[in-house]
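Morning run. Coffee first, then this:
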Amino acid sequence: MNIKTRIITTLCVFVLWFNNLTMLAQTQNANLDFGNPTTEEMKMTSCSLEPNASAVVLCRLDDVNYEIRDGDFCVVYEIKERIKILKPEGKDYANVSISYVDIQGNFMKSEKINGLKAVAFNMTDGKIVKTKMNDKLVFRERLDKEDMLMKFTVPQVKVGTVIEYQYKIVSPLYYNIRNWYAQTSIPTMYASYHLVVPEYFQFSIENTGMHQMQQKESLAGCTFNYNGETLNCNGQEYQFTAHDMPSIKGDDYVWHAKDYSNKVTSELNSIRIPGVSYQSYSQEWKDIDKSLLDDDDFGHRMNKSNPFKDEMTAAKIYTMKDNTEKIVAIYQLLKKKLKWNGDYGFWGRSSRNILKDGSGDNADINFVLINMLNDAGVKAVPVVMSTRDNGRLPLTYPSMKFLNTFVVGAYTNDSTMVFIDSSIDDGYLNVLPPKLLTDRARIIAKNDCRWVNLQGIAQARKNIGIIAQLNPQGQLTGMVRSTSMNNFAARVRYEFKHAKDSATFVSQKAQEESLEITDYKMKDRASFSPSVCETYSFSKNCEATSDHIYVNPLVIIPIKENPFTATERKLPIEFPYKQSILLNVHMTIPEGYVVEEKSNGARIETPNKEISCNIKFLVDGRTSFVQYKLDINDTFFGVPDYNMVKDVYAKICEYSKNMLVLKKM
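And here it is:
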């Protein structure tokens, strides 16, 4: 061994020794003794990691092992968590919800929760007082036919309280190990995930995230009593340890914050149990395609009869020549017959139950829509996905467990497909709710299964035209005609529908645009169409002195405030869809006034024009003309791009404040 090799080897040993020493020291600083919070934890008033945090996870321990119960393997999750409440709003973390699988009519495939304990620790007269949770504060809520929610509230919680809870989940779903997340919506000082997997189960284990997390793997011995025989085998032991993890919170510019959390995922590849035939669980997407097409509750539902054949005949839908016209007519008829109940699903119930109830989730109604379209000669297929709030489909391994709903793809001709979903009340073809605009959905069709980017089909556009007159007293009056298209049209309809009444909607609009609005009208508000047109008169009092008038020539400012003001951002920026706003303003200047000060036009954009704002401004005699065009041409900006996006928005907002200064001659 030469000197260089010896030096490198020595350095590697030193680094490993130092890392292990550091990990040990950090672990020793964490209080792992549940039931005994320390004096330091009780007196803690803020989190050094995030001083403004409303609460902090002091310690979380997750221990996952395989056992044999009721003659078969199961996975046992033992969870312990300690949280410190730092601010009044942090008291919400005393309300805990635990989701688990509970399949109606299949007790053997359902998970059980047991050993639940929850306590609150408060400092009273210098002593730690412990309050246990009463079982009466535990509730169970059914979410759907396969999922339940256990809810409980830790008692006597206030600012300064330390809460602890622990429980076990016994899962017969031994082929599915739950994802483990090192981060939550509040900072985490210490978290540990211990997992032992017997050699009979081959999993792909992935540790991903933006922050460093220690990982250690080793062999472990496992002993089971299986079918009356003792099984001794090796196991793979994993230990993941996280320290000082910042909170991870979603906002309007990120789909699903958990996508970017430090986490450990496990995907089963195969099972080799002695005496049991080998089973391979390693899949490709083509395997999932086939499973779905062959499934009685999915693929076979695509070939059911049309329950509204008579109604379609009466509406003369079968005789329509244009497929787009057919799709629109069928969808409008369907929505008159069946109501969406507000839920999203995947498998769908039988048509008989849906027709009896007159309502269903989107999967229920989408299957009926597919049957109606196919019956009318329009090829229609399901397009499966994981909704944005459910997280992105993993790129490294395919799995059906991540799919949670589907939309309908319908062919307008041999090569062009449009997308629609029964949850749409405000949109149109290719105008899906943002949660369905995923960039990775999969078309499930015989001999034609493939990926499609649904976010790529979405486009929100708005054209605003303003003709205004300014009088010598500084009063600006005029007319606005605003046409919103596609996803912007859906947003306008949604906001109108959810306002208290039409007067409230107009009042809110006037407040947002800083105008007095009269004679408001909306065309195509309730129609199933790609656009909505708003027209209204307005007035606005501008600042005026005896010889000057100050007016913003834009009249309506598309971006008033910069949504990106934080010094740094931990998550990417994800816009819901591409956007384009065109604003044209013609304003007549009062007679006897001249322009004393005006802004020149501007082009504000990112280097590759992902975001672009082009503003043209000119004055011709007594007419001021402004054209403002904003384009957001990309929907994803990584963390390194944050300052670029922030600066562009800041410049757009700053320019939008510029005034046209008029002086009396």
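The mean pLDDT is 91. Good start to the day.
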